[in-house]
Amino acid sequence: MVNHLISRGATINPVRKPNVTGLMSLVRLAVSDADNNTLVALLKAGADPNMQDAGGLSTPLMKAVGEMEGNNMPEATKMLSTLLEANTDPDGVDWLGLTPLTHALWLERFAARVYTVNKLLEHGADPDLPNAHGVMPLTLCIENEWTDTPAALRKARSETARALVDAGADVNTCGPGLPDSWPLLHALSRNDGLRYGDEANDYNKVCALYYGKVRELPPLEGPLSASGVRPAEPNITLADVPEEGWNNPVTPILLKAGAEVSQALLDRVIY
């Protein structure tokens, strides 16, 4: 039916009238209906994949990202690919200042979150484009509260952080909204630690302290673990630190990507 209407000259990019609210583009309607076949037909006929709702509320891509945790994830996955392959702007901002990437970081489904973040980055999403509050995606990735089980939460955080870093995210800034903070400090404030040997990860907020010592910053006073015991391997290097395991820490990912362990950061770590 859609192809028939298009062939008969139906308008595929309707012009909005002033002061009309709630009007969606046909592309946006196709995404809302989880209908990839119609979406493909509209785009092939020249429909604008970036047309926002009246008032600039949302874009088709933003809606497709949201559909990734709906009831039809297979169709949502197809629509996401269809839009991105049609050269949809991966950084289009909605009225709340969200981008598709920052929206994807809030998805609660583990598989959907990791898949969507990677897909957007593969199609050119800016890993350093901040949200309306001036906070960059890497910091949002570390800070977001998700409803997964703790193990899935840590794994999701680790995998999305790795994807952002691999795409070129700046590991030494949180963005203009947090000018006096660093992603590493946020990771440590989330008790994101490392595991040494067979000992359980109970080193509350101490990773930067330890690496500050490894990197020959001024000696630090005080315990380096919750139990007051220093790690048993004083010559450990970044290459020896696992990025996977039972706790999937973000800290080694940041450190290996060049996160700076400054005295200013060390002064703000509470242990």
UniProtKB/TrEMBL annotation:
Keyword terms: ANK repeat, Repeat
Presence of the UniProt keyword Repeat in the record: yes
Superkingdom as given in the UniProt entry: Eukaryota
Keyword Repeat listed: yes
InterPro entries noted in UniProt: Ankyrin_rpt (IPR002110), Ankyrin_rpt-contain_sf (IPR036770)
Cross-referenced SMART domains: ANK (SM00248)
Pfam families: Ank_2 (PF12796)
Bilayer-crossing regions: none
Record protein name field: Ankyrin
Provenance organism: Coniochaeta hoffmannii
Lineage, top ranks: Eukaryota, Fungi, Dikarya, Ascomycota, Pezizomycotina
